[in-house]
Amino acid sequence: MKSVSHLVRVSILVLLLGTVFLFVAWTNDELDNAQAFHSKEEIAFFMKGGGSLPIGENTYFKTSGHCYGCHGPDANNFSMIDSNGVDVNVSDDWRSTMMANSARDPFWRAKVSHEILVNPAHQVGLEDKCTSCHAPAGHHDKVLTGAGPYSIAELTQDPVGVGWRQLRSMPYPKCR
Ligand code: HEC
Ligand code: HEC
Predict the structure, then answer these.
(1) DSSP letter string, 116-154
(2) Of the bound ligands, which one is closest to the alpha carbon of residue 117?
């Protein structure tokens, strides 16, 4: 009887020690960090953007200059090319589009002015509505931060809103 309880005690001790060793072994056995293709310095360089596109941000949006370093042309002609080696980078493709220029388009500005000329009492509503699609980065940032309707006067002073220069009208996480 005595030897059985002794056996139980020893088993428990071995079990406890085993558990401790298991955890020690685990903490000492860390996995290697995944190897990134680009170095930290390269990523920092890409994040600086460039290509004469503006660098700026408001609460929810970053301008397209922030995207150019990775989505613009590749000086090494390694990425952003088609099978014939022709540059097909999406930044340069996008920046010439009607969408990219929708808040700077003089015809659009003229049409907004004309709408207000015809309906002066609706100026605030009209400007807020028209900018919701034509200058979404400025408009939605103001609305989402609870600061009220967005105007053309504000738009002309707003480097993030004016270009509608986001690669797309998507909110983009600032951690990139
Ligand atoms: C540090 C490099 C880097 C920067 C800076 C960067 N991107 Fe990207 N982006 C990537 C990579 C890499 C992918 C592809 C990810 C994948 O396929 O898993 C990607 C994918 C995307 C996609 C999806 C494309 C698709 O067809 O599915 C969009 C949209 C996008 N990025 C927008 C942006 C915008 C907007 C900015 C600037 C505000 C930006 N990116 C800045 C590296 C970057
Ligand atoms: C729901 C989104 C949306 C709203 C709101 C909006 N637009 Fe547009 N607008 C567009 C889109 C998309 C186009 C491009 C259409 C195309 O390419 O066929 C456009 C094009 C235009 C054009 C033609 C630009 C050109 O150079 O050909 C004018 C002018 C215009 N919009 C004026 C206005 C005015 C004025 C308002 C406010 C009263 C307004 N838009 C509100 C989405 C919108």
Answers:
(1) HHH-GGGHHHHHHHHHHHHSHHHHHHHHHTT-----HHH
(2) 2
